[in-house]
Write a structure and sequence with these properties.
The protein is built from twelve helices and 14 strands. The chain is an alpha/beta fold and about 325 residues long. The radius of gyration is 19 Å and the shape is globular. It binds serine (SER).
């Protein structure tokens, strides 16, 4: 059985991936890590947890040695909107810590999964059905770091034989932990506001299409790619994956089927809007489907029903 270290385990993906991986691989085989120990967190309290700041190599090495780790799922990252307000921090966290993880993986013979993003695309590429192998000229610091991360992962794979794998995640929609300052976050906030206030003011304009995915599909993508037969992988870093593509008015229309009084208004944030417009309208994920059987389960309709019922239950208890 694998011995997995998850960095950034308290974040939007990590908080659900940790629970999912404990179910798939066994609680004893998953070591979650983060920079805090929040009280009541199942990530911290229901399994193995290590305090790790990924800017400190020795903290990662100690955990790898102590738990005999063979697989590192490296999630700690700064998202796009925050990256624009602090580009140096975005570079240090997203590229600096990934490089440390790759070096440790080389020395201790670990495989590495780390997410890339739709943000690797910026200008001069095909915006509709963006191909797997496409020109990358990102215009955000986040995109620059994710594109660099793909190159680093490929380099460590080709040069040193480290088993590196990744996906270009679109906006991820989830009901457990809020995303921390991304451009696609509107598609999460809209569900919370629909339940709390029956109204949402969107910082992304109508007509702006971006790819999205419900978290259960994202968790499957990570585990399925980690477990994929390497002989079948033509690509590695990183695969286009998507489940749906929509603009804010489409998710609002879907919410209205459940909450007829719901209203969307627009108060566009120019920085986030410019980022959104630089990203694909839709991705072509054929390579992922062909090479490791990627096949998402949720669409906008089924995701909306599930999000609203889970959030209703959660917000009632808050
Ligand atoms: N969800 C991310 C963001 O908006 C994109 O990968 O920053």
């Amino acid at each position: 059985m694998r011995k997995i270290l998850i960095t950034g385990a308290l974040g939007q993906i990590g908080s659900e991936l940790t629970v999912h991986m404990r179910e798939v691989y066994g609680t004893a085989n998953v070591v979650a890590s983060g920079r805090r120990t929040p009280k009541g967190s199942v990530v911290v309290e229901d399994g193995i947890f290590e305090l790790i700041d990924t800017s400190d190599v020795s903290q990662i090495v100690n955990a790898v040695k102590k738990h005999k780790i063979d697989t590192i799922v490296h999630l700690s990252a700064i998202l796009s909107a925050v990256g624009e307000s602090d580009p140096v921090k975005a570079w240090d966290v997203n590229v600096g810590s990934l490089l440390k993880v790759l070096e440790i993986a080389r020395e201790y013979n670990c495989s590495v999964f780390t997410p890339s993003s739709i943000a690797v695309f910026g200008v001069g590429y095909q915006k509709m059905k963006t191909p797997q192998d496409e020109y990358q000229r990102p215009t955000t610091m986040y995109g620059v770091t994710k594109s660099s991360g793909e190159l680093l992962c490929d380099y460590y794979s080709k040069r040193f034989g480290v088993d590196t794998r990744g996906v270009r995640f679109p906006g991820l929609i989830s009901n457990v932990t809020l995303p921390g300052g991304g451009t696609t976050d509107y598609a999460v906030h809209i569900y919370y506001e629909a339940i709390k206030n029956k109204k949402y003011s969107s910082f992304i304009n109508k007509g702006t299409y971006m790819d999205m995915m419900y978290m259960p599909d994202a968790l499957d993508a990570i585990v399925n790619l980690i477990e994929a037969d390497p002989a079948k992988l033509i690509h590695r870093n990183a695969f286009n994956v998507t489940a749906m593509s929509f603009a804010p008015e489409h998710v609002a229309d879907e919410i209205k089927k459940h909450i007829p009084e719901f209203e969307i208004v627009y108060d566009v944030d120019p920085v986030k809007q410019a980022i959104a417009e630089s990203w694909p309208d839709s991705l072509d994920d054929t390579a992922a489907r062909e090479e490791w059987d990627w096949n998402p389960k949720y669409n906008l309709q089924t995701m909306t029903s599930d999000m609203l019922s889970k959030l209703r239950a959660k917000l009632k208890n808050e």
